[in-house]
Every structure is written in C-alpha cells, then in structure tokens.
Design brief:
- The structure holds two protein chains of two kinds.
- By secondary structure, chain A is of the alpha/beta class.
- Chain A is 57% helix and 10% strand.
- Chain A has four domains: 229 residues, Growth Hormone, Chain: A (Up-down Bundle); 56 residues, no CATH class; 268 residues, Rossmann fold, CATH 3.40.50; 205 residues, Growth Hormone, Chain: A (Up-down Bundle).
- Chain A is built from 29 helices and 13 strands.
- Chain A is globular.
- Chain B is an alpha/beta fold.
- Chain B has a single domain, classed as Vaccinia Virus protein VP39 (Rossmann fold), CATH 3.40.50.
- Helices cover 35% and strands 23% of the residues of chain B.
- In chain B, a hairpin with a 5-residue loop joins strand 8 and strand 9.
- In chain B, helix 3 packs across helix 5.
- The chains are: A alpha/beta, B alpha/beta.
- At the A-B interface, strand 13 and helix 17 of A face helix 3, helix 8, strand 8 and strand 9 of B.
Chain lengths: 827, 245
C-alpha cells in the first residue's frame, strides 16, 4: 500500500469505508431513471425529443464536476453528511423535477415561430438534469474521499449501472412507467437509509426513519402521477371525439399501449383508400403505442363484403397478381393486413408481431370481436422481431408484406431520422427476397411524402438489393404504384410478365391509382389520377434504374441513398446542401421540408458542446495558479489530463454504441438486445475497474493502461471483421444461446474498457487531488457529447467508422496518460 | 403591441357604435394589412406550385374583412395576424393565414355557391368563405368548439354560416350537392360520402400534415362528367430536383 494517502481526515468524519452498497444501488437507480425517462418522454413527447432531453440532462454529471472543483474542500470535510444529503436530494428531485417538467407546456411544432418554446425546452432539460447532478456529486465525493480505492468505487458504480439497466427493463414488464418513477424515488430513499448505516452516521436512526417515511409516501402515491401527453399526438386527438375512451392500458418496455373504443363516431381507419371506393370500414378498435402510431382491430361479423375496403388500397396490389398465396405479414399489429390476406383468399398467413401484448389484445379481449382472426385455421402467429424472424425462418412464401408501421404524422414531420431500423436496409430486402418462392413478391407500403422521400429511398434500396442478388436488370422485377396517400412497391422473384403487367394496370386504373414504375412503363401513364407538378416518382424510378443513378442521388435535394445495416437510418433524408434554401423558407410553410429529427440531433450536439466548454473551461480557470515559473509545465500537464479524460469519455460510449448496434442485429429483439449488451458492457467494465487494484498498489498505472488499451484495440478491431460472419453462422440458434455468446464476446472488450478511467483517476488522486472532480466533470461532459456524436457519425459514416474512431481515441489517450512526474511538479 | 392592448380594452365600448366607426378605429387594421402583404409575398414565392402569381382579389378582400383576432383565444390576440398557425385549445389550431387564402382560392368559388366545411375549428375559414359565397355549412366534431364557433359567427353577423356539432364523414345530405368542400378534420382517407356530395365540376380541398405544419394541399377535382382526380400541391417554394435527370 505504497501510495495510500495519509489516512482519513482529522475532522469528525465517521466514514471508515466507502459506502459501496449505496453507491451500487444509487448508480443502478440513476441508470434505471435514465432509461425510464426515455420511456416517459417518448410517451408525452416524441422519441427524438426524448433523446435530446436526456442527452442534455446528463450534463448534470458535468455540472457536478465543476461544482465539486469549487466546493470540494467544504464538502469533503463533512463527507458522510454530504453524501447523505446528495443522495436524499437525488431521491427528492427524481420525482419532483419530472412533475415540474411536465407542467411546462412545450410544443415542438411551434419552435419555428415561437422562440419562447426553446426556453421551455431548455427549462425541461435543466430540470431533468438536477437528479443527475446530485447522484454525480455523491459518487464523485466518494471517489475523492477514498482516493486510494477509486477503482473499487468506480467498479461498483459500473456494476450498479449494469444491474440498473436489466432491472428497469424487468420492472417495466410489471409496472406502468409513471408508477415506476415513483417506485424509483422510493428505492432511492431506501438507499439514503442504507447509506446512513454504511457511513455509521450518528443520526442514522433518524435519517433511516425519515427516508422510510418518504419511501412509503411515494409508494402510496404511486398512482398519482398523471402523464401530460402532448395534445397533438394521435391518442389525445382521438379522445377529443365524444364517446371515444381508453378501455384498457398495457405497458411493457416495448411500449405503452392504449386501447381506444369510440362508441359514437367510428374510427374508420383505412389509409390510402381509393377515391373511387364506396365502402366504409366496419367498426374498429384502435391500439395506440406510446400515445401515437395507431393500429386497428376490425370487427368481423362474418360478412366478407365488410372487408371490401381492403381491396381499395394500394397494398392490395400483389393479391391481384397471385392466387391462393402463402403470405408472410411483417408487423401484424391489430391484424388489418392478415384480414386483407384472408379477404383475398390467401391459402396460409404467417403473421409476425414484435409486441406480445398487442397479440394478446387481439386474441383475448377482441377474440370474438375479430372472430378469432389470429386463431383461425390457416393463420399462424409468431411473436418476434420481423427481421430476426425472417433470418431464422426456413419457409418460403408467395408474398411477404411489410406493413405501414409508423404513423403518418411522425413520419411526415421527419421525426424518425434518428431511428435505426433494420427493416428497410439493402441487407434486409435481400433477406426477404431469399424467402420468396419463384414468382413470389415482396410488397412494401409507405406513406407518400411531398417532395417524395421514403418511397424513392425504398425504390433505390430495392434496386441495390436486386443488383447485389445479381439481377440482370432490376427494373424488370420491380413495380411501384401510388395513391395520393400511400405507395406500394413490389419486388418480384422473377421478371414481371405480360399477364402481371396487365393485371397491375387494371388494378391501378380501377382504383384511380397512378403507376410510377413497371417494366415498359410510359411517361403518359405516370401522372393521370393524382396529379403532381411533375411525375416525380416515375422520373426518379427511371433515373435510379438508369446508368446515371449516382447523378440523380447527388442532385436530389433529399438523401434517398439506400440504407444499409452499417448505416441503418432509413428515415434520414436531410442534406446540408439544402439547408440554406429551406431555412430561407421558414415561416413560409417550409418547416415540413426540414426533416426535423436530424437537425435536433445537430442542435443537441451544439448545445452539449457549448455547455461542456463552459463547464470544463470555467473550473479550469478558477483553479488557483501556481508560481509563474511553473506555468508551462502546469499547462502541459493539465492539457494532458483534459485530453485523456475527454478521449476515453468519448471512446467508451463510441465502442459501446457501435457494438450495441451490431448485437442488436444479432439478437434482434430491440429491448432484450439493448438490456443484455448494455449491462454486459457495464458489468464487465466494472470488473475491469476492480482488477486495476493491484496495478495501482504497485504503481504500475501507466503500463496497465497501455495493456488495457492494447486489449481494446485488438478486440474492437477484430470484432469489426469477425462479427458479421460469426453472426451469420449463428443466426438460427435460440435467443438464449445467442445472448450467452454476445455476453462472452463483450466480456473481454468491456473488461479492458473499465481500466483506463480508474487508473488515471488513481494517479490524479495520489498526485493532484484537486483535479479529480475536474476529471470527473470532463468525463461526464464527453459522455454526453459522445452519445450524440456517435449517432451523427453513424448516420454519415456508419457504425464501423464509429468503432474505428474510438480505437484511435483510445490510442491517443494511452499516449497522454497523466505522468507521475508532471503531476507532481507541475500541478 | 400597446395599441393592440388599448384596442382590446376599448372593444366593449365600441360594440354599440356603428360598423363604419369601428372600421375606422379598428386597431387591427394595420396588422391585417401587413398580413395581406405577407400572403402576397408567399403567393409570389409559391407560384410554381399553385400556378398563380397572386390570389383572386375577392379572396384577398375576404381575408381583409374577416376580423381574425375574434377567432383566437384572448392570450393569442397579439399574434392573431401573424402569418402562422395558432393553438385554439382542444388540441386544435387556426390555420396560417396564407394557407387559408390558398385553400379558399383553390376552391374557385362563385357568389351563389353552397360550400360544406368539415372541421369548423375556430370558424375562421367558414367566415372567410361566407364573405365569398351564398351558404356555408360547417360541421365540427368537438362539441365545445362547435358551440363557440357558432356563437362567434353569429355575433360577428355571419348569418350565411350554419354550424352543426357532429360527425362530418357523411357530409350534410339535406343541403347537398356542394359546389365546394373544405375538409380540415384529420381523416385517414377522403370520405366517399363527401366525394358523392360534391357537385360535378366541384372542388374539395384538404390540408395534409400535422396540426401546425401543412405538408401539402390535396385538391380533389370532380369534372363535369363526375370523374375524380386529385392534385397534390406543395404550399412552399421548393423543387426537389434541380438539373436534369
């Protein structure tokens, strides 16, 4: 124990040992809170705003760093009390700040006209940052107080966070998001009680009693928190209609489902219905996910005529080119597409739906209502993520239907730009294509946007997929039709023959749909019923199939290049080139052109950068300067510290985010995949941190860090090459064994990633303790920047580049590892 | 701003004064004039999509006469004439003035026409139409909005507008056929009964998008033979592709 500092302080500090149990539990709660906030904000606002708000709220960690740089002496003198107070404030603010944030009336769509909305947004994330500030204080104070045991505290912090990620996912299966928040508050109070005992506080009895009372109050008030959902989301809009009411609610990590019946005014959900249709949909029940994204369950009274409307939408096209088809429906939802397949005489329907609760609702509560749609002979239901199902599935089909999965409102506002989706990538389309029987079709329906975006990107993706499948002329295998509202793309396993073409033309003409592409299409057929200024869809299809498709992709004002598994952002359409033009049109209705999601990401990054600069630079200047002669040396040392902690902060999350994407594609299930990989990363990083103890005791900080970084470089680089082929081999394995393989693969990488932070922090603790909170703050800020920057990099360059950048950052960190000598002399 | 507020406090006093006197002292007149300027500018901007350099002068006259500030909630009055949509409560909005002008203009209405509106909202669009046609029938599904709009239109003297609370999907059969139909209520598709109640040669306009952001305008045209086509118009100056293919 050479480097152990001169024992504990000489004041009345009672803590002999770090409160490891409370640190672990509080870290678990903090991570659980973060995940839960994402859920809560996705329900009350939209997913991308949730993302922004949380990214910025995490700046609470950075603020904590600069706060402690200034206040450390006073707080450390009364460490035990400071820890308890911060833990208690964490517990209080966790509940109260969300309540307060909910009271701020923020409407994203008004931002353009009303700059005041930005202030409200800022107020929301500042409020939500408060709990992170307090928990960061508690952990950082412990790291400073027990600076000989940083590796152990950091290890428990990480392991706690890992537990938190798994626990919150489990909790969300049994609890609704709002009560879950109250429960987390109660657990945080329980931790305060535990901490009082761990720290042997003299008043521990009273503290524990008060904490227990607070916890009980929160548990009793669990159902009191009402979510204030934006009035412009689909659910509140539907509930405005007299007679419409929520009849049941269901919740899981996959989403918050509200089942709505409308007694007086029918819901009549039939997007894309032909202008020539005369039929009205029968009675329907709506299921909303996260207060938006409606899917319907339709009343089946046994009269086939009631479902005639399902023949008047663009997605009915493939049924006119096939007879008694074996159909695979991806994204079955309430069963509309299953009903459509049966209505058209499908011989067998396989329905895949990711959310088991939706399947249960259709089967149980609305079993009679839907005339047991999902339990009929000839219908098989699988609860599975769509892409994963198709990768494992051994059957082949005449038709694979990919349903309209997202809501029009969110889609048209460009809110999905940040959503990775593996359903619409080149690789995905090839996977579907391989499951088609000869002569079979893949059919994908999308909302029409003006100017065209999704439909064109999908077309480009199909062309690329067919090229990679060695199709001689992709155009011969594709067809695209459109109504004013939806488009349906067909990709045939084979060449469209004359019979197909005449059936297709008849189908479109009868329903006043326009043809955008089929082999031998004529421009005069392309803009007859739903008139656009120019036959955009036809022009784009022709260009994408022609020899100058690259020119078209470059010139088109939206990004419609095919999405790939490495850059799975199907809904990212934004191009910087067009930004000035669109900004000039703001306030003139130009807003829907803006593809908001992407810009929000950029705005988040800018805000995080500015905030981080302020938070890192301010405390830097506030530090008391050494004698003038030592200036050069001091700057040098401090710059190294800054870069080191900044680089590993960025790199840690880059690796984590980069590989979580890889494993997501392997494990497929969005919730389990993230929970398993995230907690594996955190727990093994925690073990790595704990393992640095001996190195620290024997003063081998720098060598161990170099060893850890070498490990990271080797594993990260190796994985970018071997994971794809390895996953391809294991694709058919059961999920559990895939999860085990994933954890085993993550373990060595994460283990190494857990080392650089505590090694450098221990060195600082021994030689320049006043810089410890500063390093902590830098690390916090860079983590915030990292999460946003990783997404931005992935959108533009792909996940492989994200991981490789992280490798470079780790190497640069190893080269700037704080030197013992520089520290000692200069600082 | 100060003028606007003073104007507000004077309104009750002015209520009894003759109409021309109100017009002369109308504190909103300048704001309205500025609104018209913005609409004109937007028209020039978007001419490539709506095939018009300027609105029908009658439509502009109508926009100039309807007191838009009467159709917004009191806290929004100061913004009443800004060229932007405003929240009116119940999760609904009053459309951007330019959008109202274009929608009205695209309907090509004549003085003797009978028009159906589905989704009354604040009643503003109905009032603009009422300045131009003989009869306006308007259906609102949210009951409090229907009551408010009906009272408001009556108070402002729009006797040729009839507002009804109800489901607009089936139109208003007692008064069909209509020369023009405006659908501002969110619908997952164009209701077939509305197409049926549109007179041959009639036009229907539907803004597509979210409550605040109109993505496109859907113009449904029924020709003299009864066959129906749509035209999708971008209400903003933007072409997706420059250069050749």
């Amino acid at each position: 124990m050479k480097l152990q500092p001169p024992s504990v302080r000489d004041d009345a500090d009672t803590a002999a040992r770090p409160p490891l149990l409370s640190v672990t539990l509080l870290s678990a709660i903090a991570l659980a809170y973060e995940v839960l906030l994402m859920r809560l904000l996705s329900i009350v606002q939209w997913h991308h705003f949730a993302y922004m708000i949380i990214s910025l709220a995490l700046l609470g960690y950075g603020v904590s760093g600069s706060f402690l740089t200034i206040a450390q002496h006073r707080l450390l003198q009364r460490y035990a009390l400071s820890f308890i107070v911060n833990a208690a404030l964490f517990a209080v603010s966790l509940v109260i700040c969300f309540h307060a944030a909910q009271r701020i009336d923020f409407n994203a769509e008004e931002v353009l006209w009303d700059p005041g909305q930005l202030l409200r947004l800022a107020a929301i994330y500042l409020l939500l940052a408060v709990p992170f500030f307090f928990i960061a204080n508690a952990v950082a104070l412990s790291l400073m107080r027990f600076r000989d045991r940083v590796q152990r505290i950091y290890a428990f912090d990480l392991v706690g966070a890992g537990m938190g990620s798994v626990s919150i996912v489990s909790l969300l299966f049994v609890a609704f998001p709002a009560p879950a928040l109250m429960l987390l508050g109660a657990l945080a109070f329980a931790c305060v009680g535990i901490a009082a005992w761990e720290l042997s506080l003299q008043t521990r009895g009273r503290v524990a009693a008060a904490a227990a009372v607070a916890a009980v109050v929160l548990i009793l008030g669990m159902d009191e928190l009402e979510l204030a959902i934006s009035p412009y989301k689909g659910l509140p809009q539907t509930l405005r209609v007299a007679g419409a009411e929520v009849v049941s609610e269901h919740s899981s990590p996959l989403g918050y489902l509200s089942v709505v019946e409308s007694a007086r005014v029918p819901l009549r959900h039939a997007p894309g219905l032909s202008l020539r249709a005369t039929d009205e949909p029968p009675r329907q029940v709506a299921v909303f996910t996260d207060a938006d994204n409606m899917t319907v369950i339709t009343k089946d009274s046994g009269d086939p005529a009631a479902f005639r409307y399902l023949d008047s939408v663009t997605s009915a096209l493939p049924y006119h080119l096939l007879s008694s088809a074996r159909v695979l429906i991806l994204g079955a939802g309430g069963g509309e597409d299953v009903q459509q397949a049966l209505h058209h005489g499908a011989s067998h329907v396989t329905a895949v739906e990711v959310n088991p609760q939706i399947v249960d609702i259709v089967r149980d509560r609305y079993g009679d209502f839907s005339r047991h749609l999902l339990d009929r002979t000839g219908v098989t239901v699988h609860v599975s993520e769509a892409r994963g199902f198709v990768s494992r599935d051994q059957h082949s089909y005449d038709l694979i239907q990919l349903a309209l999965l997202d809501s029009f409102a969110a889609s048209s506002a460009g809110l999905y730009a940040l959503n990775e989706t593996y359903l619409y990538t080149v690789e995905a389309l090839r996977t579907y294509y391989k499951r088609l029987r000869p002569g079979g079709y893949l059919a994908i329906t999308r909302w029409i946007k003006l100017p065209p975006r999704d439909t064109l990107k999908l077309f480009a993706t199909a062309v690329e997929a067919l090229r990679r499948e060695n199709a001689d002329d992709p155009g011969l295998q594709l067809a695209l039709i459109r109504s004013w509202q939806t488009s349906t793309l067909l990709m045939k396993n084979g060449v469209l023959n004359n019979a197909d073409k005449s059936a297709l033309k008849r189908f479109a003409a009868d329903r006043a749909f326009d043809l955008a592409w089929y082999p031998s299409i004529n421009e005069s057929e392309a803009n007859r019923f739903n008139l656009l200024r120019q036959p955009y869809f036809y022009q784009a299809a022709t260009s994408l199939l022609g020899p100058r498709s690259h020119e078209f992709l470059d010139q088109y004002k939206y990004n419609v290049r095919p999405a790939t598994d490495d850059r799975p952002y199907f809904s990212h359409f934004f191009k910087w080139r067009v930004f000035p033009e669109i900004v000039a049109l703001r306030g003139r209705g130009g807003m829907p052109l803006l593809e908001l999601g992407y810009l929000i990401l950029v705005a988040t990054l800018l805000k995080a950068l500015i905030a981080s600069l302020v938070l890192i630079l301010l405390p830097l200047f506030s530090l008391k300067g050494p004698p003038p002669g030592a200036m050069v040396q001091r700057r040098y040392g401090r710059t190294r510290v800054l870069w080191y902690f900044f680089a590993i902060g960025i790199a840690f999350l880059f690796v984590e985010i980069g590989f979580i994407q890889k494993f997501l594609l392997f494990l497929h299930h969005p919730v389990y995949a993230i929970a398993v990989t995230l907690s594996a990363f955190l727990v093994f990083a925690g073990l790595g941190s704990a393992a640095t103890e001996r190195a620290i005791e024997s003063g081998r900080h720098r060598r161990t860090a170099a060893f850890a970084v070498s490990g990271i470089v080797v594993f990260a680089t190796l994985y970018t090459w071997i994971l794809d082929p390895l996953f391809a081999k294991l694709v058919a394995q059961p999920t559990l064994s895939k999860a085990v393989v994933s954890v085993a693969l993550i373990a060595p990488l994460a283990y190494c990633m857990g080392m650089p932070f505590p090694l450098a922090l221990a060195r600082l603790g021994a030689t320049a303790q006043h810089l410890v909170p500063w390093a902590w703050g830098i690390n916090g800020c860079s983590s915030v920047i990292s999460a946003v920057l990783a997404t931005l990099c992935a959108i533009h360059f792909g996940f492989v580049v994200v991981v490789l950048l992280a490798v470079v950052l780790y190497i640069s960190a190893a080269l700037t590892f704080p030197r013992a000598s520089a520290m000692g002399q200069g600082l | 701003m100060r003028g606007a507020r003073r104007g507000l406090s004077l309104l009750p006093l002015l209520a009894g004064v003759a109409a021309f006197a109100v017009a002369a002292d109308d504190p909103y007149q300048r704001q309205r004039a500025r609104m018209l300027e913005e609409i004109r500018a937007d028209y020039v901007d978007t001419a490539i999509h709506i095939d018009k350099e300027a609105a029908d002068p009658r439509v502009m006259d109508a926009m100039a006469s309807v007191p838009r500030h009467e159709f917004v909630t009191p806290d929004m009055r100061r913004l009443a004439y800004a060229n932007r949509p405003l929240p009116i409560g119940h999760g609904q909005t009053i459309s951007q003035p330019y959008i109202v002008a274009v929608m009205t203009d695209l309907l090509n209405v004549r003085p003797g026409d009978r028009v159906l509106e589905v989704g009354t909202g604040s009643g503003y669009q109905a009032a603009v139409l009422a300045e131009l046609v003989a009869e306006v029938y308007s259906i609102e599904i949210i009951e409090p909005l229907a009551a408010q709009a009906a009272a408001r239109l009556q108070r402002l003297g729009y006797d040729n507008v009839v507002v009804r609370h109800g489901d607009g999907y089936y139109g208003w059969e007692e008064h069909d056929p209509f020369d023009a139909i405006v659908v501002t209520a969110a619908a997952s598709h164009v209701p077939p009964p509305l197409i049926a109640q549109l007179r041959n040669g009639g036009r229907m306009i539907i803004p597509v998008g979210t409550r605040f952001l109109v993505q496109e305008l859907l113009l449904v045209v029924k020709d003299e033979t009864g066959s129906v086509t749509t035209k999708q118009l971008l209400p903003v100056r933007f072409v997706p592709l420059t250069g050749g293919h």
